[in-house]
Amino acid sequence: MVRHAIMTDVPDIHRLITYHAEYNRMLFRSHADLYEHLRDFFVCVDDRAGGVVGCTALELVWRDLAEVKSLAVEDARRGQGCGTKLVGAALDEAGRLGLARVFALTREQRFFEKLGFRPVPRDTLPHKVWTDCIHCPLRANCDEIAVVMDLQP
Ligand SMILES: CC(C)(COP(=O)(O)OP(=O)(O)OC[C@H]1O[C@@H](n2cnc3c(N)ncnc32)[C@H](O)[C@@H]1OP(=O)(O)O)[C@@H](O)C(=O)NCCC(=O)NCCS
């Protein structure tokens, strides 16, 4: 099940993101940052055990643009549809808000392509998108691909 995150999910979200960030798969996020942006987050919950096994956030960038970020699924749960459901929830939310376009910066190009995203040159995204890069250890050596999904013609 995928649902909006609530305050008590923050330790689990933090654990998931920290785990993948330590492998350089995403940026670390502090507890303070997560509390501040909690309304952006969705979690995937194990229907039986009830624990959080995945998360993502839809962050608004501009009137027509949002980013899918901090997408993380527990290693033992990868390949079971959790990532698809999380991105689906983020896209539904983007549609509800009337956004025209959603993007992600990722090394998981094939996963996003399967969901209907398409790769675009990174410089087609507005500069505002790159503010997070200040916090990234790779900076100029970034190997992430930009992928976008157009929600409206
Ligand atoms: C990438 C990630 C979010 C995908 O979540 P997931 O729950 O494993 O994905 P799903 O089970 O929904 O997979 C959907 C499809 O994509 C495929 N897929 C998943 N990861 C893939 C990958 N790395 N390369 C190619 N295909 C992939 C699955 O095989 C599945 O295909 P199918 O529908 O033909 O069976 C997850 O593996 C993860 O947390 N990775 C580590 C953190 C990370 O890199 N996050 C992305 C930051 S942008």
Fold and architecture overview:
It is a single chain. By secondary structure, the protein is of the alpha+beta class. It has a single domain, classed as Aminopeptidase (3-Layer(aba) Sandwich). The protein contains four helices and seven strands, in the order βααβββαβαββ. The protein has a seven-stranded mixed β-sheet with strand order 1-2-3-4-5-7-6. The chain is globular.
Short description:
By secondary structure, this protein is an alpha+beta fold. It has helices at about 10-20, 30-35, 80-95, 110-115; strands at about 1-5, 40-45, 50-60, 65-75, 100-105, 120, 145-150.
> CATH class, anyone?
Alpha Beta
Number of distinct beta strands: 7
CATH fold topology? Aminopeptidase
Which residues form runs of ≥5 with pLDDT under 50?
none
Proportion of beta-strand residues:
25-35%
User: What is the spatial order of strands in the main beta sheet?
Assistant: 1-2-3-4-5-7-6
| Corresponding CATH architecture | 3-Layer(aba) Sandwich
| Shape, per Cα inertia axes | globular
Q: What do the pLDDT scores average to?
A: 92
Q: List bound small molecules.
A: coenzyme A
- At the fourth level of CATH, the homologous superfamily is Gcn5-related N-acetyltransferase (GNAT)
Give a short account of the largest sheet: 7 strands, mixed
Task: Report the span from N to C terminus.
Answer: 30 Å
One letter per element, helices H and strands E, the order comes to EHHEEEHEHEE
Count of all domains: 1
Percent range for helical residues? 25-40%
